[in-house]
Amino acid sequence: MTVAVVTGGESGIGAACAARLAKGGGDIVISYHADRKAAEEVVARVRDEGRHGIAVQCDVGREADVIALFDAADELGPADWLVNSAGVNMAGKPVDQIELEQFEATVATDLAGPFLTCREFVRRLKGSGGRIVNISSIHEFAPRAGGSDYDAAKGGLSQLTRTLALELAPRKIAVNGVAPGMILTPMNQFAIDNPDELHKSEAAIPWGRAGRPEEVAELVAFLLSSAADYITGATVTIDGALSLTLAQGA
């Protein structure tokens, strides 16, 4: 029996990962920040696959909450897989206008959160084996004006992923990252709600469309599988070649 902890599992990429991993035979523990109804709907999808599912309210930036999350996971058995999908978007303010409190809040969720969950996962993992996938963003290497908080956190997450991979390789604990581009999740609600905005955004993507959460979930499932046993310390970009356009016209 495989037990997976998926943070931010109530919506978007996290919810898609929870459903996909349950379909593959895993028991799933999701964390959610505030939307209990959405979290319960994801748990219902997990149970529809014949698997056990638990939803736990958790602020991943708080150490006590993360410990409680893994205490709940232990009810199903020690976690074998960890998917860090919980995250918040950028403040959208230039550096001279962003408040320290806002910067710290983004970093707490998007960087300190994965640090805390990875640490707790490794502390409880018995022996060797285990898999971690951290959901980052192409903005770990492609900055946006107004994104100093988000870009810094995702850049840090990239290095955290690599450092953990190096440290944990002797225990055969694989740690990888996934860097999505534009995916149609609540973080891009503006495009979901406005066809004109969606068309404008998709026009900049060489593949011609935005991605779907389920496509990211398939990649995550592969990285967690035995087929990816020799992959660790990698970050896989899934963005329809969007990030390859950065230097066009230079």
How would you describe this structure to a colleague?
- This protein has 250 residues and is of the alpha/beta class.
- It has a single domain (2-234), classed as Rossmann fold.
- It is 43% helix and 15% strand.
- A seven-stranded parallel β-sheet has the order 3-2-1-4-5-6-7, with helices on both faces.
- Helix 1 (12-23) links the parallel strand 1 and strand 2.
- Helix 3 runs parallel beside helix 4 and helix 4 (100-124) packs parallel to helix 5.
- The model has no long low-confidence stretch (mean pLDDT 96).
Low-confidence stretches: none
CATH architecture: 3-Layer(aba) Sandwich
Strand sequence of the main sheet, in spatial order? 3-2-1-4-5-6-7
Report the major sheet.
7 strands, parallel
Q: Can you identify the CATH superfamily?
A: NAD(P)-binding Rossmann-like Domain
Domains, number: 1
Report the strand count.
Answer: 7
Mean pLDDT: 96
> What name does the CATH topology carry?
Rossmann fold
- Which structural class matches the secondary elements? alpha/beta
Spell the H/E element sequence. Answer: EHEHEHEHEHEHHHE
Please count the helical segments. 8
Rg, Å, rounded: 17 Å
Molecular shape: globular
CATH structural class? Alpha Beta
Taking the alpha carbons of the first and last residues, their distance comes to 52 Å
Strand fraction equals 15-25%
Proportion in helices: 40-55%
